[in-house]
Design a protein that fits this description.
single chain, 303 residues, alpha+beta, Rossmann fold, Dna Ligase, domain 1, D-amino Acid Aminotransferase, Chain A, domain 1, 5-stranded antiparallel β-sheet, 4-stranded parallel β-sheet, 9 helices, 32% helix, 27% strand, globular
Length: 303
């Protein structure tokens, strides 16, 4: 097969692992910087240009999007162009866009009965007391809608601190979510790696001393974890609702069961491979071998 990996750089660890796994299985692999692409949007023969090359439908059998949050709009446009050309995409453009919108994704999960932390959203500073009240008061968590990898996430331990931070973000016209703080999680969460409707690996991430954010990019540590059947079902259901074939589902263990924090359409591979010993990159390529067919891309789910 001929596989394109949409990534800003071939030196990114997850990209390198996917290249290694695909090459080891006998496939031709090309890393394409999606930001350097431009598109010819025509109904008779849509094409995509990369540097001095023109890509048409026959150039690739499948594409693996590794779209960074800061270039979601342009990156998903490139994925959509591949879909127009009939190239199979591991994660579809609409599913990536859906999962990247934190508010929209939580609303979709809530609508389908998936457990999430109590979450409030407002725009007016006059509603700040109501926001704080709805999530059960302090301590509480404040999240920028556009934040990634723990950036723009604040734990406010008192009502006064919460009010100041929320008003500060609103003064900058930033969109934020306010969520309850799940104390019993103890600064840990669980990353479930879902491929093709199955949890293929899971790790527990623990925040470093003095922080509550467990992201590995922020110094968190990872260890192997055994999932409960309900946690496994929750992760698979969340991936299905988002319409993602490959994703990371982040869960919190609470007194009322697993709660979904986020569904990540471009999860890192290195950390979970190291923590679990699973060859995650190889399992992704195996999934592509089973599923990739011309013009097989279709929009899954609603929203």
């Amino acid at each position: 097969m001929k596989i394109a990996i949409l990534s800003r750089s071939p030196s990114i660890h997850s990209t390198k692992r996917l290249v290694e796994a695909a090459t080891a299985r006998g496939h031709e692999v090309r890393v394409v910087d999606h930001v350097r692409c431009f598109m010819d949007i025509t109904s008779d023969r849509p094409s995509l240009h990369y540097q001095d090359e023109e890509f048409a439908a026959e150039h690739f059998d499948a594409v693996i999007p590794r779209i960074g949050a800061s270039v979601t709009f342009y990156g998903t446009a490139v994925v959509r162009q591949f879909e127009m050309m009939g190239v199979y995409s591991v994660n579809e453009s609409v599913a990536i866009t859906r999962s990247r919108d934190k508010l929209r994704s939580l609303q979709l999960l809530s609508r389908r009965g998936v457990g999430i932390p109590v979450t409030a959203f407002a725009r007016s500073p006059d509603d700040v007391p109501g926001l704080i009240r709805e999530v059960g008061g302090a301590p509480l968590v404040i999240k920028l809608l556009e934040g990634t990898q723990g950036i723009g996430v604040v734990l406010a331990e008192t009502r006064t601190a919460a009010r100041s931070v929320i008003q500060g973000f609103m003064g900058l016209s930033a969109n934020i979510l306010v969520q309850e703080y799940i104390k019993e999680a103890g600064g840990s969460d669980i990353r479930c790696f879902v491929v093709g409707g199955k949890v293929i690996a899971a790790m527990q991430r623990t925040a470093p001393d003095g922080d509550f954010r467990s992201n590995l990019h922020r110094g968190g540590s990872a260890s192997l974890v055994k999932l409960t059947p309900k946690e496994r079902r929750t992760a698979v259901n969340a991936a299905k609702i988002m319409g993602l074939n490959v994703c990371g589902v982040d869960l919190l263990r609470s007194d009322r069961g697993p709660l979904v924090m986020e569904v990540n359409s471009s999860p890192g591979i290195g950390g979970i491979e190291a923590a679990t010993g699973k060859d995650v990159a190889n399992l992704i390529i195996e999934f592509i071998e089973r599923e990739a067919r011309p013009k097989r891309t279709r929009t899954r789910g609603k929203g």
